[in-house]
Amino acid sequence: MVPNGVFIDIGAHIGKYALLIAKKYPDAKVIAIEPNPIAYDALSKALKINNINNIQALNIALSDSNNSTGLCIKLSSVVSSIEEFESCIEIRKVITKTLDFLMSELGLERVDLIKIDVEGAELRVIEGSLNTIIRFKPKLMIECEDRHYDELMRILRGVGYRCSVLERYDYERYSNIACIYEGLYDSQ
Question: Which end of the chain is flanked by fewer CB atoms within 10 Å, N or C?
Answer without folding.
Answer: C
